[in-house]
């Protein structure tokens, strides 16, 4: 099944978002270094005299939380900042950030009450930062600890954060790892209990359908490559306890397509079938190894829900690592109404940017901003509603990846992380000045 990706883009803000996905990101990843970021977006980047973060004229950043900062309750802010989401704060105008820390069994160990610790041997977890109207830190605490390699995750429709462990275990662990945990931004209902129904594997990200509460999950793994899953909860009511009650975990299969890297035509569409995972707990064998024939992909990464569809990203595929074909990134979308996946775009090698990872929808111009985790310099890259690419920010400090891009609920601030050494930025400026 194949349709023109341009032919399905229609009207309104939702249509603008799709145009950004289908028409801009492929341009971004094929744009020359000389052309990008000059004629569109917010203009060229201005070198930061502090050598931390280059931004366009008129924009500024504030370091709101950094690895090693002292925490009021004891301990320090852990490192390896990664996935993140925003939630309303305790007062009007305040914002809460829930932030992942992709540490395994080394680094700054999160210090938390025993009631919030899953495995004392693990160094991952999340921190919750509450910010005031001027992005000043009002409160900062470890919100779950004893988890491992917390990479990405996803926001639920009922206002919690799903933090995902990108591991299947490590030496010295006292409990099994490779789970998803739910974090309450307020902190009252967080329990260090794995959501076992969502499976035990090398989780990356999750996107949740707000109507059915079905969760779509990506797996970043090799030997063999990872899968794209869906979890259908047993409970029909979506709330904090929804996923604790279990459900059905299934893996996506496209008949005749065993590797998503074989698809290189944007607009190519395929009908899916879903195969039950025999043992979601992976007690004796990894979930991805429980199938003779299934559809796989190298480097399945970010996922998010928009326009009634689940979008998911493959950062790259390399034949040298066992992939069927090479590419510098794909964005796919799954439509639950038609039970089909469609290739929105494919990223070509040789451009200024590569390695799409975390992506957020911008409230300005209907475009997107993505965090790059590629080779060389690392950027936050934006796109206008007309599909024109621009470099919005550059990590001027080192070549560590950018991550966790997310806007405040009012759209006035963009929050983003530099992973190492871990820093969270609050970026403000003349957002309405966007040139498209």
TrEMBL record:
PROSITE patterns assigned to the protein according to its UniProt record, in alphabetical order: TAT (PS51318)
Ranges in a coiled coil: none
Family matches, as InterPro entries: PhoX, TAT_signal
Pfam family, one: PhoX
Domain of life the protein comes from: Bacteria
Stored PANTHER family: MEMBRANE PROTEIN (PTHR35399:SF4), SLR8030 PROTEIN (PTHR35399)
Name of the featured protein: DUF839 domain-containing protein
Species whose genome carries this gene: Actinomadura namibiensis
Source species taxonomy: Bacteria, Bacillati, Actinomycetota, Actinomycetes, Streptosporangiales
